[in-house]
């Protein structure tokens, strides 16, 4: 049988998920919940702590507990996954819009990111990712031409990774990633439905083939209210300090 605090937790979760408790709405006070459920303060605090831990509410000292926006998409940061694969996994109605596709001579910044010379050529691919009817991700990819000699709009609309692995028979092995929050650029404002947001969450990735060749540098720029970045971590053993 579930503990009383879990029953209270589950009931509040149900109200949040069905919209009875909307985003930014304030929960009842601890005293009010104690009277409503006829339980101790400790029981209510356990339920509220679990709600906060699971990302349903935010407790603000001196003000109370407020419902968070749960309509965010989980964006995995530890794996390498294409937008097409992510959309299929989450059963999302999605669309990719190819804004730019060209073969360019890299500038100093891109040359440095890909560890190539300015004489090498790279594909520049800029794509808006639409979920529902909103453009909420802007992907900017720079792919070394020596590894991917041909790219078309059709390939970019579907999945570049699928093309690389299934048609070019290359194996994508690992990526190094960093996450930053940056001011929205004019390009972000042009290609994303940013509403009133002036910042974007940016995932920068350096992606390698199985022979350790760096073939892609990308910036995935996200509207901040629509994503939460998730990872799974496991402690592998004790760390001994001398």
From TrEMBL:
GO BP terms, alphabetized: negative regulation of DNA-templated transcription
Q: Does the keyword DNA-binding apply?
A: yes
Q: Which GO terms describe its molecular function?
A: DNA binding; DNA-binding transcription factor activity
- Which SUPFAM superfamilies does the record associate with it? Chorismate lyase-like (SSF64288), Winged helix' DNA-binding domain (SSF46785)
InterPro entries reported for this sequence: Bact_HTH_transcr_reg, Chorismate_lyase_/UTRA_dom_sf, TreR, Tscrpt_reg_HTH_GntR, UTRA, WH-like_DNA-bd_sf, WH_DNA-bd_sf
CDD domains listed in its UniProt record: WHTH_GntR (cd07377)
| Ranges for domain HTH gntR-type | 2-70
Q: What is this protein called?
A: Trehalose operon repressor
Native source organism of the sequence: Alkalithermobacter paradoxus
- What is the name of the gene encoding this protein? treR
């Amino acid at each position: 049988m579930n503990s009383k605090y879990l029953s209270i937790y589950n009931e509040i979760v149900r109200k949040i998920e069905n919209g009875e408790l909307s985003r930014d709405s304030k929960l009842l006070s601890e005293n009010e919940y104690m009277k409503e459920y006829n339980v101790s303060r400790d029981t209510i605090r356990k339920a509220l702590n679990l709600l906060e831990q699971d990302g349903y509410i935010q407790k603000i000292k001196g003000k109370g507990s407020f419902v968070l926006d749960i309509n965010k998409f989980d964006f995995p940061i530890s794996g390498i996954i294409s937008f097409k694969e992510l959309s299929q996994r989450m059963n999302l109605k999605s669309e990719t819009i190819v804004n730019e596709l060209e073969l360019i001579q890299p500038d100093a910044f891109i040359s440095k990111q890909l560890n190539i010379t300015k004489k090498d050529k790279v594909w520049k691919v800029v794509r808006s990712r639409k979920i529902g009817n909103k453009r909420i991700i802007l992907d900017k990819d720079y792919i070394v031409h020596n590894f991917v000699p041909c790219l078309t709009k059709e390939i970019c609309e579907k999945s570049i990774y699928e093309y690389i692995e299934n048609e070019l028979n290359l194996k994508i092995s690992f990526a190094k990633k960093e996450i930053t929050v940056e001011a929205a650029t004019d390009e972000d404002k042009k290609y994303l439905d940013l509403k009133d947001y002036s910042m974007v969450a940016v995932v920068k990735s350096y992606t390698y083939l199985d022979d350790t060749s760096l073939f892609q540098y990308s910036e995935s720029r996200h509207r901040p209210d629509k994503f939460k970045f998730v990872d799974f971590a496991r402690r592998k053993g004790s760390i001994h300090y001398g």
